[in-house]
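EI: anyone free to look at a 145-residue chain?
SC: sure, send it
EI:
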Amino acid sequence: MVATGSSGDRVMESSAIIAELRNENSLLHEQLRIALEALRGTDDWLWPRRHHIGGQMELILRCLYKHYPNICSHEMLYLSMYVDRLDQDWPESRILQVQMCKLRHCLPNPDFIITAWGRGYHLSPEGKAWIEEQLRKQHKTNGKS
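SC: here you go
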């Protein structure tokens, strides 16, 4: 194949291709961010702080609640925890098990979260009922303020 045109033309063409790829990358990044937000849920719920469930544990709980009664895979939960870090290196995958252990410790019954070995986690019916009760209490408290 014989190159035609001057080197200046090729540089301009390369610059245009790079600009187009950057725009496409930005668009794909935004689409992925939106998809991951849908995964973990963005419902405007206020989790009662008296249970000391916040940060990544709250994101896990939101994902489990949003997808009840289905199993949330390890990948789904991991992505729901790190949706804001799409452009950064993520920590070790073991962090999910650590956060799950901490979350279970904060719950009145660790069996509210059921392990589906090799597949992920899901909420028990009692776990879902407990979350809904806590959210109702929180809503009543916020309504009185």
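EI: The mean pLDDT is 80.
SC: 👍
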